[in-house]
Design brief:
With about 300 residues, the protein is α+β, with helices and mostly antiparallel strands. It is built from ten helices and ten strands.
């Protein structure tokens, strides 16, 4: 796998799906290197006209380490609450929106696709979209991450002691060290969550991820997995507090939102893609679970 950019290379002008995509602001980077690191706060932005409090997309990596909180930040239509000591890792192409009600205080790292070599991209899992954006390190890991990020920032602001080619190489090494720690945290957090989750639920979750576009029936999943409906209901409730039906419906709604936001597919085709051949039934389902219609949801993003 190589480092890559998103589908929309419009430079912030908006793509076919109507959501503006902002490229890495190279003109704001010291010496034009493919990364930035520094304090986040009032007035910090990707571009002068970037609508940070509206849904938008970026084609570069962002890692925010919060010194204060809580701050609610939307990523791919899911709300995450970050507290002091938490990190939020947003990857290229993900739709997100900043909170308008809470200040962002901490350190932010941005990185342009292509800045790191392929081997580093693979080792650090830069495109692990299956991992949640919000990470909560323990005290020891947080200290190590803070030290690595502080060292990276020192190298970034030092524009005088090395020629540009050597400075860029040092930045890549320092960035890799930080990202390796971050990737280990993300992977171990996911593994820990997996170990805590009942096997019955994990099998159900994996089956839903595979078949949600064609199968919305709890009984059908229970039969396919070899469980009684009652056993499946108990396992899902114990794992995440939801009914199996609610879990399935939320996954269908998320996919519908992604298609409505990221594509120009007609509403009927979006419904068919998530298991509703009848557009009227899809609109009814979507309204029931979101409080709005597919048409209004798409319109409000544009």
């Amino acid at each position: 796998m190589s480092d890559r950019t998103t589908r929309d290379g419009t430079g912030g002008r908006g793509g076919q799906d109507g959501i503006r995509t902002f490229p890495f602001p190279a003109e704001l980077s010291l010496s034009g290197v493919g990364m930035q690191v520094g304090a986040m706060g009032t007035g910090r932005t990707w571009h002068a006209d970037a609508p940070l409090e509206r849904v938008h997309r970026i084609d570069f990596h962002v890692v925010m380490l919060f010194h204060e909180g809580p701050v609610r930040h939307m990523v791919d239509f899911a709300e995450y609450e970050a507290r002091a000591g938490d990190l939020l890792w947003i990857r290229p192409g993900q739709v997100h929106r900043f909170s308008s009600t809470a200040p962002y205080r901490g350190t932010v790292l941005t990185m342009q696709p292509g800045f790191l070599p392929r081997a580093t991209v693979e080792a650090t899992g830069l495109y692990r979209y299956d991992l949640p954006p919000l990470l909560r390190p323990d005290a020891a890991r947080l200290t190590a991450l803070e030290h690595a990020l502080t060292q990276l920032e020192r190298e970034y602001v030092d524009t005088t002691t090395l020629p540009l080619s050597l400075r860029t190489a040092v930045l890549r090494h320092s960035l890799t060290a930080f990202l390796l720690r971050l990737a280990h945290l993300a992977a171990s957090s996911a593994e820990s969550a997996h170990e805590r989750t009942d096997t019955t639920f994990t099998r159900f979750r994996d089956a839903v991820e595979k078949d949600f576009a064609v199968n919305h029936s709890v009984s059908a999943y229970a039969d396919a997995l070899g469980y009684s409906r009652r056993t499946l209901v108990r396992a899902v409730r114990a794992a995440n507090g939801q009914t199996p039906k609610r879990f399935i419906d939320r996954r269908v709604v998320l996919e519908a939102k992604r298609l409505l936001a990221h594509t120009d597919m007609p509403i009927g085709r979006v419904g068919a893609a998530v298991g509703f051949p009848d557009p009227a039934n899809f609109s009814k389902f979507f309204h029931q679970h979101t409080g709005t219609t597919p048409v209004v949801f798409r319109t409000e993003l544009r």
